[in-house]
Design brief:
alpha+beta, 46% strand, globular
Length: 222
């Protein structure tokens, strides 16, 4: 029995020592050193342009080109002017700055998802809350109270402190009150967020929505 105990104890100690050493190395490797600067690498198309109306999706390529052909947001993959430029900087695990501006965003991380929320609060009136353009974003920071709405800009990324993938979508809404050109309004843009597909249920009779999604890759540099 004594020999069995003498043999077992050193083996147990050795096993524990290796376990602790591995744990220490893992913690050390996973600990980010701030600040961290991220630079743009590439913008790739995730899904091609899709066009929706209240009656369903339009798949005619000629009509799709008519709606989006001259809108630069729908050709972002061809724009290489920003490649290699500073895109965002983590100043701590809880805050970042985009580019060289002084607008700070808070950071909330959940696994590989990062939500960046702008510190400034915007106030909007209740008018237009039922318009689809207020509901395109999947990730929002919105509070409605007493006929007014306050919101903060939210951006999103996936990855870690070495590489990030930022989802974007370009959109264009053509809206007409009576279906005639004289009352036609257009809204378009490109946002660092994910498209909220449930917003399609809010399309009105004379609305047309075009959406194209991208992934922007950023890499950290020392």
């Amino acid at each position: 029995m004594m020999k069995s105990i003498q043999y077992f104890c050193p083996s147990l100690v050795l096993f524990l020592a290796f376990s602790l050493l591995f744990a220490c190395k893992k913690d050390s490797a996973g600990k980010a050193q701030f600040p961290i600067d991220f630079y743009s690498e590439s913008a790739q198309v995730e899904t091609a342009t899709r066009v929706y109306t209240k009656g369903g999706e339009i798949k005619d390529p000629i009509k799709i080109r008519q709606l989006t052909g001259n809108v630069s947001y729908f050709h972002a993959e061809d724009d290489q002017t920003g490649k290699g430029n500073l895109y965002l900087s983590f100043v701590s695990k809880d805050s970042i700055f985009f580019g060289n501006n002084n607008f700070k965003f808070g950071v909330r991380q959940s696994g590989e998802q990062f939500l960046f929320t702008f510190s400034l609060t915007l106030l909007q009136s209740a008018a237009g809350f039922d318009n689809i353009r207020y509901h395109l974003l999947k990730h929002e920071n919105v509070v409605q109270s007493q006929g007014a709405q306050t919101s903060k800009e939210v951006r999103i990324a996936y990855g870690n402190h070495q590489e990030l993938k930022l989802p974007f979508f370009a959109y264009r809404i053509s809206s007409s009150f009576d279906g005639t050109p004289r009352s036609l309004f257009r809204y378009d843009g490109i946002v660092n967020n994910e498209f909220n597909e449930s917003s399609l249920s809010m399309l009105a009779a004379h609305d047309t929505l075009a959406v194209k999604t991208y992934i922007l890759t950023l890499k950290a540099r020392k």
